[in-house]
Amino acid sequence: EWIEPKVVNAIIHALAEESGSLLVFLPGQAEIRRVAEQLNAALPSALAASLQVAPLFGELSLQQQQQAIAPAPDGWRKVVLTTAIAETSLTIEGIRVVIDSGLSRQAVYDPNTGMTRLVTRRVSRASATQRAGRAGRLSAGVCYRLWSEDQHAQLAPFNTPEIQQADLTPLALQLLRWGCQSPDELSWLDQPASSAIAQARDLLQQLGA
């Protein structure tokens, strides 16, 4: 199911019903571009006349990112279309409404193929709470979640730690450089799987590292 039409409808509804600017969470750049195109085509002229639509994701230049997080000019509103980059730390002045697609895109290592691929997944409940908290950082806010209460109850409580789903070959090489023969010699916030470390070392041996 395509998420973009649902997101566009939610944006138009929020613009009509709420005040202030909007922060819209989408899984990736492709969805951001499609939502921007569909929104520009669907916006009533009365709303479009004083509205800025700004993308925000990691591959943008610093100047483009700064433009996205800058407050809207007086008399204008802003719709910031973002990935999980805005989930923490960023505070965008004037954001009163968050629209959350409930999706994120993560890099996941597949040990069967030895390749890392991008996977679109449901966010965790912790991430959903974090995203909702971006609304109304400086005043009361509203969050639109584009999923049901039943679906919310089925979300994972927390995100999977990156170390448990990433390619650990660079880490294994770094540990060997430090003279660390086993990850058990170190204290970890999240312990890497011994099988993943073993596979990473096998690959290093095959590469002659």
UniProtKB/TrEMBL annotation:
Signal is among the record's keywords: no
SUPFAM superfamilies to which the protein is assigned, alphabetical: P-loop containing nucleoside triphosphate hydrolases (SSF52540)
Protein name stated in the entry: Helicase C-terminal domain-containing protein
Source species: Nematostella vectensis (Starlet sea anemone)
Entry's Gene Ontology molecular function annotations: helicase activity; hydrolase activity
Helicase C-terminal domain span: 7-179
PANTHER family, alphabetized: ATP-DEPENDENT RNA HELICASE HRPB
Entry superkingdom: Eukaryota
UniProt keyword annotations, A-Z: ATP-binding, Helicase, Hydrolase, Nucleotide-binding
SMART domains the record matches: HELICc
